[in-house]
Amino acid sequence: MAEDNLPDDFDVIVLGTGFPESVVAASLSRVGLKVLHLDRNDYYSGQWATFTFDSLLKWIELNQGETHGGASDESGAHNKEPPSLESGTFSVPVPSHSNTVSNIVVRSYFSEKKQEQEFGLSGSKEDSTLETAASFSEAWKSVETKEVKPVPSGENDPSKVITGAEGSGNEAEGSVDRPSDDSHEKLDTSDLNSTSSPTQLEESNETPLSEEKVSDKDFKENHDEELPTVTDSRDGQELSSLSQPRHRSEKKPAICPDMTYDDLKPYWRRFNIDISPKLLFSRGPLVEALISANISHYAEFKTVTRILTYMDRQVEEVPCSRADVFSSNAISVVEKRMLMKFLTFCLDFEQQQEQYEGHENKPYVEFLQSRRLTPNLQHFIIHAIAMVKPETATVIGLKATQSFLQSLGRYGNTPFIWPLYGAGELPQAFCRMCAVFGGLYCLRRSASEITISKENGKCTGVISENQLLKCKWLIMEHSYVPNIYKKECCQFVSRGVFITSSSLKISKEECVSVLSVPPSLEGEEPVRVIQLGSASMASPNGLYVVHLVSKGVTSAKDDLEATANKLFHFPSEAGNLHSDKPTVLWSLYFNQFIPDSSCVVDLPSNVHALSLPGLSLGFGEALQQAKEVFEKICPNEEFLQPVPNPEDIILDDFLQDPNHNTPQTDLANPQNDDIIDGGEGRALHEQAEGGDGGDGVDSQSVEEKNESGTGATSSEPQEHLANE
């Protein structure tokens, strides 16, 4: 758009708003570099995004319609009249589509009409062209003919320039619903593990495995070893907004034999469904980064309340803390002693190398057998605690076990926390930090070409909508990498998303659960399961969203269907919704490519390609990659320098002119909680500083906002970020 051209010179241009790109953009903006952040989508977070149900359907349709290969992308780029290139440079086309998702299969178990209105059986149907999704709205009628509709761009200009001075940028179509900005009701923080009260990211009253007292009378007399205390010098600074909205009061969808899409339609915007769900370790690098950068109030979190595993054809709860171990009926008294002794060893196994000498590169299961652990304990340790394969090298297995144990007890009874409204909130938090320090944002705008110097082979800039934008560094998500720099990628993740009528394991309180399902046959891959309910803001009250993730072998459906059949009941016909297992109401399978560094070759030295979400449970690998890129660009600067607190800001102009009015910005006006927090919670260090917790959000205001379609799910993306 000629009338709204961007500035034409930047230090860094970033393509894609996925997690690692957003972290790099935030860290570079924080040290004073001029950053432009573009995304071809009309929502933030890219392949890490979270969608409401209607937005997920649009994402499915768009990705099913993406048959564009590299050739068509490149020819499309040359259809436009390019700007004049500088002497001694040439251009390379950038793909206009991501092409990272394949093998999409959607299946519905709803009746399309009420039974009394049907003239024949309307059973569930499987349709990779979204025929079953057509009944969601009139907009889907053309899907049966594989007509690809563009995502609506809204009434406003699709390429609005966003600066750090233009409000809150965490909201765009397809991203998640958030609490409304005018909600400031204090939330109770009395119970970290309660699903009916909000949770604050503070030190949990739950004693970790290393500190909890033994209460098992049958075992206490013979138990004389104590686990060493896990300490953390950073624990004085805690995330104080690990919170959840108070329990929703709305009626849950009526689960009945003739339930239709129309019955679910009023609840579409109460779903927040991840396409790449991931957890945070309580003492992991991302939690530490959020705290040290002073941006943890940009998101809210909930503790994962239980770890489950699948054994003997049923779902069992895994004991995590010492109290859980000794109260568990799943293991015998003798096994309890053996387990505690082994876990004690794992906490500081590096100092006891003689105990695993010779087993370093041997399978972990062999090492456990050498310790004379029973098959029952081997299952718990491998599949539920370390979450590795039996053939994993012993050193890797011990490190995974240690990481699990070190994060216990910080915020709850498990080592994990989950971001409310989905993992897509985290890239947006870093985008907001980038914008606070002057980063420029523009959605629905990408680069059609990158320009390369013939003299030194470095990137000199990009061409975006016929405008030449110069830069010293170019950072991009892998899907933006020009085809001439790509090698064929054969690695992918198989993902499944299920909406179910009940929990995998019924409990008194609604739980966020992580389940490990070991492979049934040799050669199969283990499957990781994450179950989310309304307390995590992932679904309406009474329904659950369950994610299945596994390493891809064939197609997602083939890789995950056997596990899904173990866990869920799939109605054979419409109306057959009754079973002891959770009943599946809707399902989605898809594969997602996971290219690594070997899939990119001969990139210019000042261009960095960042990875897509992989198979890992957490964000550690992506965060480390972002840090490495930052250190190459700014080797002498601190990664993710803290955002200053409002009270620490010194306004030079104010000091020079006492009569000058204080600028009414967020940082100069810390009482304006609506802007500072974006309605998402208070500053996260209040607990450490003696504060009384965080301002929460009234659940009714969330419902009203979701129902009205404003905020994150409005028809037109709100392309602005808060300038704190």
Automatic annotation (TrEMBL):
The keyword Ubl conjugation does not apply. Keywords: Cytoplasm, GTPase activation. It comes from the Eukaryota. Residues 175-189, 210-237, 679-688 have a biased composition (Basic and acidic residues). Its main location: cytoplasm. Belongs to the Rab GDI family. Residues 86-96, 190-208, 658-672 have a biased composition (Polar residues). SUPFAM superfamilies: FAD-linked reductases, C-terminal domain, FAD/NAD(P)-binding domain. GO terms for molecular function: GDP-dissociation inhibitor activity; GTPase activator activity. It holds the Pfam family GDI. One of its GO terms (biological process) is vesicle-mediated transport. The keyword Chloroplast does not apply. GO terms for cellular component: cytosol; nucleus; Rab-protein geranylgeranyltransferase complex. It is found in: Cytoplasm. The lineage of its organism: Eukaryota, Metazoa, Cnidaria, Anthozoa, Hexacorallia. InterPro entries: FAD/NAD-bd_sf, GDP_dissociation_inhibitor, Rab_escort. Residues 164-173 have a biased composition (Low complexity). This is Rab proteins geranylgeranyltransferase component A. Residues 67-96, 142-256, 656-724 are annotated as: Disordered.
